[in-house]
Structures are given as structure tokens and as C-alpha cells.
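Please describe what follows:
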Amino acid sequence: MKMIVGLGNPGRKYNNTRHNVGFKVLEEFAGRFSVEKEESRCEAIIGHTRPGGQKTLLVKPLTYMNNSGQAVAALVKWYKIELENLIVVYDDMDLAPGSLRLRAEGGSGGHKGVTSIIDRLGSRQFSRLRLGIGRPDREAVDWVLGEFTPEETDVMNKAVRRAADALEYWIRHGIVQTMNEYN
């Protein structure tokens, strides 16, 4: 079983913010396949789907970004997910807007949601898909909780679709081939 986690903040006021691109990618991905079942468990919304016949969980933590690890670790344990079958999708200020970067493992790069996941799992051994949102010219918190400009929206919509493509590829081919194809 695969698990795709999109990071973001719950609630309408955060819906179109830069910090919620992980949720946006998950929504794009879910729209491509029939979600057989949706449930709430371990402070997350989980969609069950089978892209390419591969049982896959689509996870939106409801714990707010900085506590994402709480939900992710509980679900990994509940569903007995091997960490090589986990990928986390999130925003990255160090990448140009719309850029994608995949990694098989690593640190958090200062992203507090990923730090929370690493801390709760006790491991860095999970894949990540980062979407660039650009470096702010103001306070980082104001930047990530701000909405995209109309110009950025076009770029990000394309990036969200490409990220969903990468997730489909990851399910079929694994992280190494996906990095070679999409980085």
C-alpha cells in the first residue's frame, strides 16, 4: 500500500495560500481517480483509491502544518505503511515558483511540517515532492500564509498538475525513476 501525504492547513481561510500547495496537489491527484472511500482518522482526512490497481491512501493532516507528524506517524502505524511507500508533498521557499524537486530522503530544509514528520517517525527515510513557492521579500510566515498573485496562480496550477503526474509515475516506478524523470 502507498501513502501520499499533502501538507497544508485546514480551514477555508488557508485554502488558497502558498502553504497549502500540498493539499492542492492531493486534490488534483484525487480528481483523476475514483476515491472508493473517504474517512477521518488520526486527525486526518483519508481517501482510498487504486491508481493503476495500486492501493493508495491520500492523506490531508488536519493538525495544522507544524504538527503534521502527529497525524502522519499515527497513520503510518495504523496502516502498517513501509516508509519507502510514503511520499510527502509540500511547499518550498528555496525553489523558484512552480519548480518541482523530488528526493528519496533527507532533512526538513527548515520546513516545520516536515520537521514534525521526521521527529514523529524517528526517520528521514521517506520520499518528498517539493513545489517551489519562491523566496519572500517579507516575513516568511506572511509569505506562506499569503495567497498567490494572478500571475503566480497560472504557474502554480501548471506545477500542481505536473506534481500530480509525478505522483502517478512514482506509484508505478518508484522514487529513483521518478526523480530521473521529473527533477
User: Anything to note?
Assistant: The chain is about 40% helix and 20% strand.
